[in-house]
Amino acid sequence: MGGHRFLPLEEARAEKRAMDQLALDEGWEASWWSPDWHPFASDFAGQLLVVDAPTGRVLEFLHDDEARPEIAPDLDRLIERIWTALHAGTHVYDPQFGIGTPDEIAAYHAARASYAHRAPKGSARPNLALVLMLIPTFGVLALGMALDLGPGPTSIAAGGVALILTGVFWRIGWIEF
Predict the structure, then answer these.
(1) pTM for the complete prediction?
(2) Domain residue ranges in the chain
(3) Of 41, 22, 43, 42, which is closest to residue 33 (Cα–Cα)?
(4) pLDDT tens across 151-161, in order?
(5) Cα–Cα distance for residue pair 136/169, rounded to 1 Å
């Protein structure tokens, strides 16, 4: 499942409500997000596995790409593939990564370990980084509302500021993922 982890039922329902509301608020076309899609797994970086209710197909929602690759023709086949891969030993379960190949999981843990030294646990830096991200982000939101730019452009601008600052603070080691 490439790093996707199954969502508990309440989280899946909350994800569906959030995505449906976001699609409505932002005016997304049905090709970007369909109200017929029901998320059940996430990689916690914006990608979701969803079931398309009318067809039963399992699709991957890519948060930054309009492509919606079919993962399996239905849930039965997806579960069969997962079971077969786990039984054959080609895939394993990792509580942090989800289900993947041993190489995928090793690469994931190696990447996490290489960043672990950047922000020591208990460090005040992540709190400082959060404050330094929130101030300009809320400033952009306030400016957008004052200029009556509307929620779409204002949210995009504020999100962009937060994303840029997240990248900067990650790069200098103040936060880790």
Answers:
(1) 0.61
(2) 5-113, 125-171
(3) 22
(4) 666 666 666 66
(5) 14
